[in-house]
Structures are given as C-alpha cells and as structure tokens.
Design brief:
Elements lengths: L1 H9 L6 H7 L13 H30 L5 H24 L4 H28 L12
Helix pairs in contact: 1-3, 1-5, 3-4, 3-5, 4-5
C-alpha cells in the first residue's frame, strides 16, 4: 500500500482542476480573501491522504482478496469496482446533495489518480504473491 500511496501523491504534480479553480477564486480587490498557496497544497495533500486511507487501502485489500485466484485483469477490475463505490460514498459524503454539480468531476479526478496507483498495487501484489511449491512425483 505504500507504493500506491506514494504514486497517488506523485500524481499531485499535475494539480487537480478544483485546486486551480480555488487558487483563482478570490476577488482581486479583497486581499483578506486570499489564501496562501501552501494552504491549497496542504488541502490537496490532506485530500489524497484521506482518499488513500478511506478508499485505496480498503479497495486494494478487498479487491485483491476477491481476485486472489483470478487473472490480474479481473483483480484490477474488482479493485476498481470497489474503489468506485467507496469514492462515490466519500465524495457524496463530503459534498452532499448541495454539491451535485461538482460530484462527477471530483469523482473522476480521484478515480483517475487512484486507478494509476491501484494498477501498480495489483502488479506488485501479483509479483510478491507466494507461488505453490512444485514437488517431484514420488516413484
């Protein structure tokens, strides 16, 4: 899970749309409304850490468990299905009914960033999975 969390954090090098919108939202004639840029970056990092704990870790564990005897593609699909449901619950819980216009873009941003990181998690978990020991036939 550390790999997927680190990759999720690295995706913040491409800032999300909501962060760019928030940076330019303060009116130019009101200096008290300005938010220092480090606060916006801290909010984004906190959002990614929250997403990692609330969505990535449970979906990685549950999806890997559900896909334990299946191909990597099926396992990845299960991980993304669980992540999609958990991301919907997280975004809906944050924005509620009043933010229905912002739910889809925020959900898509989290899912796009999370799907890259979860692909690395599925790949690594398949590589590190213990292989059955091949024993020679008796005789």
């Amino acid at each position: 899970m550390h790999l997927s969390g680190a990759l999720l954090l690295l995706t913040s090098l491409v800032p999300p749309i909501w962060l760019l919108d928030a940076y330019g939202a303060a009116p130019a004639d009101d200096p008290s409304a300005d938010v220092p840029p480090f606060v916006l970056i801290a909010v984004a990092v906190f959002g990614y850490v929250s997403f990692h704990v609330a969505v990535q870790i449970p979906s990685g564990l549950l999806g890997s468990w559900l896909g334990r005897n299946r191909t990597a593609g099926v396992t990845y699909g299960l991980v993304l299905a669980v992540a999609g449901v958990l991301t919907t619950a997280l975004v809906w819980g944050l924005l509620g009914a009043r933010g229905t216009a912002q739910i889809l873009p925020l959900w898509a941003d989290f899912m796009a960033r999370g799907s890259l990181a979860m692909a690395a998690y599925v790949w690594l978990s398949r590589r590190l999975r213990p292989r059955p020991v091949q024993r020679p036939a008796a005789g």
